[in-house]
Structures are given as C-alpha cells and as structure tokens.
Specification:
The chain is α/β, with parallel strands linked by helices. The chain contains 16 helices and 13 strands. Helix 8 crosses helix 13.
Amino acid sequence: MVVTFVSNYINHHQIPFCKEMAEYGPDVEFHFIQTMPMEQKRIDMGWAVDPGSYSFVSVYYEDKKTCEDLILNSDVTIFGWSEGIVKELEEKRLSSGKLSFRVSERIYREGQWKMISPKGLINKYKEHIRYRKKPVYLLCAGAYVASDFKLIGSYPGKMLKWGYFPVGASEVKTERKVGYPIKICWAGRLIDLKHPEFAVNLAEKLKGLGYDFRMDIIGDGELKKDLERSITEKGIEDKVTLTGGKKPEEVLDYMKAADIFIFTSNYLEGWGAVVNEAMSCGCAVVASNEAGAVPFLIEDGVNGYTYSNGDYFDFSNKVLLLFEDRDKILEFGEKAAETIGKLWNPKHAAAELIRFCKGYKDGKEPAFSAKGPMSAARIIKPAGFLRTMQEKNRLE
C-alpha cells in the first residue's frame, strides 16, 4: 500500500509520525511531499529541517513529475497545508474516487458567524462541500474542527480525530519527584492569543501566598518588554525567568525539569503541540479548554486540569489545587504520560491510520478507532460571538 502525505514542508512536529509511517513494514510504502521551502521566520526560530535528510521526503519544486504521480496514483493520499501550490492536483485526486484524507485545523477560528459570507461559502463549496459523497475523510487537527465543518455540511460521517504527534513518550521518559521549589513552565510565542500575562499574574499570586516555586517562561515575541516590565513592577524577579526563545530540544529539557506546565492560549490556538510534549514529559498540565488539543488530550481532574472561557481566576485556582495537593502533580503527570504513551503518539497514530486504510482497500466498511487518533470526532461547540468580543480576536 502506497501512502503519500502532501504538505508545505517537513517540520519537527511531523517527523516522528512520518518516520513511523516510513518504518511501518514492507507492506507500506510511505512518501512525504514538500511543496515549498520553510519560511525564514520559522528557520530563525530553530525549526529548520533538511528534507534531504529523510529518504521518504520528495520535494515538489525539484521533481514535479514524480510528485504528481504520487499524489494522483498512491493508494492513499493525505493533504495537509500546501498553500494552494498543488491545488489542481488536489482537486483531481479528491474527485477521482480514490481514498484520500484532508488534515485541517479550524476554518472559523475567529468565530463561526464568519461563515455567513456568500463568497466564503462559494470557496468552501469548491474546497470541501463538493467532495461530501467521495471517499474523502477529514482528519480534525483540533477538537472544534468538526463543528466548523458540520456547519457547512462537509464530510458527513467522515470526520476523525487527529492532531500533531511531535514526540514519542519513550523519547522523554524521566523519573519524577516533586520537591521544593515547585517548578512551573510556560512555553510559546509571547503574543496576545497565548496570554503569557496569565503566567506572570499567577507568579505574583503564588508569591503573595508564600509558596516556594520557580517559573520559566520560554519564548520570544512582541509582548516580551511588557512582561519584563510587569515582572519588575510586581517584584517577582526572584521567582520568574524569561528565558527567551529556545530550540525545540531545549524546550523539552525545561519540560522534563518542570513539575507543572501551564498552557494559556485562547480559542485562536488551532492545536498547541506543547501540550503533547509537556504531557509526554510527565508534567501536570493546567490548560485552556479553548485550544484545539486540550479536549482531545486532557480529561479535567483525571490527567490534568482544564479551565474554560479564558477565565484567569478558574485557571489560577486550578494551579492552586496542585500546590495544595502535591500528590496530584505526580498523579496527573503519570496519567498524562500514559495518555500520550498509549494513544496520542506517532506510533499509535500511524498504526491506526494504516489499519483504517487497509480495511478500506480490502473492501470493508471503514472502522473508526474506539478512542484517540482515527476515532469519530464529535461536535463540540466552540467559543461563541460574545466570547470573541472579549479578545483581540485576530490570528497572529
């Protein structure tokens, strides 16, 4: 069975899954087609990957003929984000009746009320709706994706849970103990939608309550100077370190050393791969339920804590629960690592995708997984109009 994954470029979030596909076994031939070079800003952030380092990667802009043949004639073709570069080939493949998948984050992240645009609906018909009766399945990279696509009547009964699988649990296992100071980690770009100020405000609250802790805020961005000023004004320089930007492997080292990982992005966060990574590292995660990864990965009070509607007070209170019951930190960390180790990891995702595709190829009714990747994506209502009015509501 030949499986081809088409996307803009190979990156460190995709490599673990692609390697699992490529190494699956002799009955699976896997190809990744890169349609464009990585943007300089991502290279500057330490995300550069040499496509020539991986035998399964073909570069569209260097060998169009081979890539076109793979897109059109593979047993299974998966379309990620290709910036419209292979649009005509994509349309031809999706219309062909051959098994195909599309990976998508939300299409109405800034609010489902935006779907009323007639021009937008025409575009959505061309991109999605017209394939509703074809063997084209939607891999929902986020818990609220299915709701957006149901709104326009696309992929009925063919929407499956998916996501990003940046690191396998076996790669980051570490034995944990919770001592003092309790170590807290936040990681991401320092921009509005990720609300890094929640971390700073939390540190002020914890210090005021007399807790012994240290907090690392990892990342760069336009809010860095504001955060530096706020840290100084609040008198928490002894508790909080702004580390600046770090390479992906360095961020993992911080996570391995942390007891608690806080994830404060709002509904504009399509996925949030740092949640996977922190859970893999055995952190107890307190996360915004609005971000795409969180409802898939975290069950509130079981393998972490979640908070709703961007509510800072709910967020800070959930963190306080961990300080008041330190056993929960280890319990949540162990269960979080188990969630990634058993379900949300690249090896399991690859196996479930291949199982689904083999069943289809053998003429069987496609069987969704019971849970995790390739299970049915249920409809979860995203942030409503009033909630979007509480934020700057713009993608960055």
